[in-house]
Amino acid sequence: MLPLHASGVCAVTQHFFFNGDDLEWLVAAQGALTMIGNAGMCYAAVELSGGGGGGGGERRTPAAAAAAAATSTSKSASWYDFDVENFATVWKDDSDATFAAKIALLSLVVAVVARDASLACGPAFDVNDGGDLVWARAAVAAAMVCAPACLNVAKWDGRGRALSRGVDVDVDVDVDVDVVGLGGLGFLGGVKVGETEKDAEKTEKAEREEMKAPR
Q1: Helix/strand/coil for 192
Q2: CB 10 within 8 Å of CB 30
Q3: Are 144 and 118 in contact (CB under 8 A)?
Q4: C-alpha span between 83 and 71 (Å, rounded)
Q5: What gap in Å lies between CA 189 and CA 65, rounded to an integer?
Q6: Cut 0.70: pTM above it
């Protein structure tokens, strides 16, 4: 999904510079990244369904994968590893309505800042007005696309390495904490918050055995 994210950033960057003709390469890059991302999603769907015949090695159960994914909130996480999902922990004491309102307000603030930044920087990058930074338009546009993409790659590469090492989850929340949007059950992706990946696998195995047991 990383190419799809970069594709969206290409579109936003093009709009940031008021769709200048000199940055038409962003449109081509957006189309190419969208195609690559869609192709990758198709391939991933086949692999996850087991139809690819590959992917040798142990497949993780959904519960174990959800528990391992929680490593993004671990103490050792890098600053760029903070993601939208982490707000469920930061604002864990809020009701669903309050949480949704905060997310909406945060989105609005980010949108306003981006718009105002575009308007403020516009004269300096404006080709028609002969702005002082016209010469840097292409370089700045490339940086706006590449920087988030590189951070995204680094984030998911770190998470992938943690999964391959079988790192146990280290989450700064109690097991009985309420998780926003899940009815206060204290579960994250079907796994109790604070539960390790190995515990999740044991729990799921026990549940399967119980379902098979004669009644």
Answers
A1: strand
A2: yes
A3: no
A4: 12
A5: 9
A6: no
